[in-house]
Design brief:
The protein has 198 residues and is an alpha+beta fold. It has one domain: Alpha-Beta Plaits, CATH 3.30.70. The strands form 4 sheets. It has a 4-stranded antiparallel sheet with strand order 6-10-1-11. Strands 2-9-8 form a 3-stranded antiparallel sheet, with no helix packed on it. Strands 3-4 form a two-stranded antiparallel sheet. Helix 3 runs antiparallel to helix 4. The two termini are 14 Å apart. 27% of the residues are buried.
Length: 198
């Protein structure tokens, strides 16, 4: 088992992913939480007071109003990165069979709530969403809170199998190209990383 302490510094803004509408969160997204007993904590953390628009996605907040990311968002990034990198047959990720189970059961980020150390205040990102449907092209407006470039997070990753360290480093390196959170294809959430002392 190995524990690695990390700092991720966002080189592009990162968008909030929690719905500002607490009912949407409770009825759908909260039920997908890793531990159903945490739903009420997560609903409380989105702090819907002060949300400008019900359709806006936001960052969850701690009891002092500070924004954070959940640990499972980091694991979600690992799965996304690993899934793409498995397409490169010479990559470390391609060596992992059933990579989602490996990440779920053997790779852990902590703490559960990872504070965003903001470089500036929280901003807003509006963008059009386009979709090709059977009825033709549809366009909608999406709005999210955005933490600006220069914001950083510090957390640790515990690997239950030391053999996964090379893959972890590969996923983190991939973060400079494809980030965490919403609208990753535009470059949002891209980051640089560094290992911190224990």
């Amino acid at each position: 088992m190995k524990k690695i302490n990390l700092r991720i510094t966002f080189i592009e803004g990162i968008l909030g992913t929690s719905p500002g509408n607490e009912d949407i969160y409770r009825d759908y997204i909260g039920t997908k939480a890793p531990d159903a007993t945490t739903i009420e904590d997560e609903v409380e953390a989105i702090g819907t007071e002060g949300v400008i628009e019900k359709g806006m996605t936001i960052f969850p907040r701690d009891e002092n109003g500070n924004p954070f990311l959940y640990d499972y968002q980091i694991k979600g990034f690992f799965k996304d990165a690993c899934g793409m990198l498995t397409r490169i047959k010479t990559s470390e990720s391609a060596k992992l069979k059933a990579y989602k189970k490996i990440i779920d059961g053997l790779v852990f980020a902590e703490p559960r709530a990872i504070p965003l150390n903001l470089s500036e205040g929280i901003g807003i990102c509006q963008r059009p969403l386009r979709a090709q449907t059977a009825q033709g092209e549809r366009v909608a407006l999406s709005i999210s809170e955005e933490a600006s470039a220069g914001t950083y997070i510090e957390f640790s990753v515990t690997l239950y199998d030391d053999a996964h360290e090379k893959a972890l480093r590969e996923w983190l390196d991939y973060g400079v190209m494809r980030g965490i959170g919403q609208w990753r294809n535009s470059g949002k959430g891209r980051f640089a990383w560094e290992e911190l002392d224990a």
